[in-house]
Amino acid sequence: MAIASKSANSRKVKNSLAKWMITLGGISVLFTLVLIFMYLLYVIKPIFESAKVDAKAQFVIKEESKVLATGVDELKEVAYSITKQGNIDFYQLVDGGGYKAGEKILSQKLVADGERLAQLINIGQEQKLLLDTAGNVQLIVPNFSANFDSGERVIIPSVRYPLGEEYLPIDEDNAGLTKLSFAMDDEKAIFVGFTQDKRLIKTTLLAEDDFSYDTAYEVEYQEIDYAAKRIDNILVTPDLAMVFVREGDQVAVFSLDDDAELKATIIPQLAQNKSTPNHITSMALLSGGSSILLGDDSGKVSQWFEVATEQGREFKKIRSFNVSDNEPVVAIYTEQFRKSFYTETPSGEMGMFYTTSEADLWRGKLHQGDAQAFAIAPRADGLVIFSKNELAIFTVENEHPEVTWQALWQEVWYEGYPEPEFIWQSTSGSDDFEAKFSLVPISFGTIKAAMYAMMFAVPIALTAAIYTAYFMTPGLRRKVKPTIELMEALPTVILGFLAGLWLAPIIEIYLPAICLLLVFIPSSVFITAFAWHKLPREYKTKIPETWAPIILIPAILIAAYAAFALSPVLELHLFGGDVRQYITNDLGIDFDQRNALVVGIAMGFAVIPTIFSMAEDAIFSVPKHLTSGSLALGATQWQTLIKVVLLTASPGIFSAVMMGLGRAVGETMIVLMATGNTPILDWSIFQGMRTLAANIAVEMPESEVGSSHYRILFLAAFVLFVFTFVFNTLAEFVRQRLREKYSSL
Predict the structure, then answer these.
(1) What is the value of pTM for the model shown?
(2) Domain coverage including residue 12
(3) Residue 406 covered by a domain
(4) Total tally of structural domains belonging to the chain
(5) What is the pLDDT of residue 68?
(6) What is residue 545's predicted lDDT score, i.e. its pLDDT?
(7) CA-to-CA distance for 606 and 667, rounded, in angstroms?
(8) Alpha carbon distances (Å) from 178 to 66, 728, 732
(9) In a domain, 235, yes or no
(10) End-to-end alpha-carbon separation of the chain, Å?
């Protein structure tokens, strides 16, 4: 009795310990999932935060002079102003370098004594084009360099002259200029201006080598045939391709190509009606120079760019932004590297917008409607405003303006595209490139890859599981089941490698054979089965029962050989000798070598062991008394299988399919190596795709930590996490319902 009591106590302790360990393990798994969920949200959250503009500092400037332009260095430690009198003044914004915040640290004269500036044009990259009262120009660039000689960082301001320190004449007739615009590259500089005697002129500087301080260059003068009484705006695109000229509500565009005729193309006016006419009040070029922004007196800003149409390339109104309900838009300020812009109304109300995502980022009032100059910091993280002899500095938190739910999940009309589209294209070799972050193509690719993989894997895995568990002899089952389960240990990188470099070329060359296999293999199985059925009994008894299924192997091999042998013949007689060319040219279907068919076969091969193993266990575990009872009541083996075994095992079979689907959705290496990784929306079996998992694996190592690209990749991981979590939860719910329904059998 003592020994039995001791054994019972020991068993009780072990059971209790096992119970607590299992409970702790389950809680740990749930806790880990919650931590993953929270961390993903932590990384994603900043991309959906609203933009903020906060006052940083404000200084009183003693000198009374009209400020034409202002700016600040990248670190927001030194600001400058260019005045009507032709002076550039630099101001310290933080204590350091022997100067107090707000103190002037450098002043330099930019014009000759007695001269004044008539106009100043902001070019971008902090370039300023100065126009004096005589109609001559000079290009300057405020420059900032860091010095650490004193043991601390000190910003040293200076002025560079890319075209030399001498003022250059723009009009060969020496007439004064009322409006002027400018752009340059390494070899050419173009000025377009409107003279006081009503002429629109173009002046080109051609450098013998790259422009530098002492570069020699040729000057070409040209008059543009365009009659106008006055010009309100002139804007030359940074790529020197076009110039926009606004006269009232009419905007004309000219091609600046050397081989093109300088002929005006009128951009359609803003929509007007007789009761409430709208008139253009401001104009600006968006970053990159492909889009033009037009502000009107109704408080709206519209974006226009060229679109390919049946009549050729035409400028179209793409989108508009409501800036104010009762005030005109008097100024538009664009960022240098992003598609963001700021607007200003007469009362000083300002707004911040992002074009591509159509985001209204921020509204506020930074001055009382008396601003003389406004500038955006080079890193777009600050603003500088001169008003009433006051210099005000503001900090801007706007790291991810391009990210909105609309931009991620709806069609977006990007510059240069004929219509709105779903596009994922995060990087490019061009500095003017605008990242495109639609999650729709890669989410679609995930579903497409999983669907084709399951179409290949589920029929093979389930039928194999049914035969192995229900019909196969125990001796053969003990060999077959571990062999198939061993396939699951094969690294997916090997499968992807073989699929991309071996299977894909074979499918491309022998595509008719792949189609024939769908007919020949089932036919060979039925023919072999029929021949076995007709075989005399004395011959059947001589063949061991465990060998019967092995007879199918040579039949399947012969069918496969026949399919590949007939492939060239069919290709020659039915498809003109080239089936790929027939699909592409005659059917109009794009064909990629690494396509959904390759992925379906390779990934299906990886998923088959998972589905087979779980489904076979579920079928084999059906109680024997159920099958015996069914057979005893007169049901055949097939009737018992369909009406009893499969229904009883349906929860396990369903779980097996869901586990296979989960693996297919999360598969990375096979999709990465066996597809073209093209994020397109096309169900075609002959085209590739890009999945969420493969996209993360490809782009995460190259993304900048904390950037929009980086956080959107985490968002893609979050979408994948939520998708699998929700899908598995629904699958578990269905499995439980099936178990409750058929547990009474």
Answers:
(1) 0.86
(2) 2-49
(3) no
(4) 2
(5) 87
(6) 67
(7) 9
(8) 18, 69, 75
(9) no
(10) 42
